[in-house]
């Protein structure tokens, strides 16, 4: 296969987690459907409607990638996951739901400088999620993000 025939695609986001059982319960409680459960707690896969969210033990993921598993960062990692919504009310409801299920609210929903509305939460392992509605980015009836051409 030549480099010209390679088609780039984003298929899976894998998060390193400290406690598989806790993280599996958290993401299931958010409403993500767990798939391929035959993997038990070795790795967990969730259908997100377009890509897959995978959970894997932090130390095993670091070992697999060939990087040290400590020290674990306590500061912002320079990455966020996004949950796009149709309205400000949906942003607020999603933030409240995540916090109710064990997330840490980092920033409540508020107007953005680009005309949107967003807030942030962190999952039990500190992975940061932005919950947002943004002008020009539409969430369709299929719950997928649709970008303008």
UniProtKB/TrEMBL annotation:
Alphabetized SUPFAM superfamilies for the sequence: Glyoxalase/Bleomycin resistance protein/Dihydroxybiphenyl dioxygenase
PROSITE patterns: VOC (PS51819)
Alphabetized Pfam families for the sequence: Glyoxalase
Top-rank taxon, per record: Bacteria
Protein name: VOC family protein
Gene3D superfamilies associated with the record: 2,3-Dihydroxybiphenyl 1,2-Dioxygenase, domain 1
Domain VOC: 9-134
InterPro entries per UniProt: Glyas_Bleomycin-R_OHBP_Dase, Glyas_Fos-R_dOase_dom, VOC_core
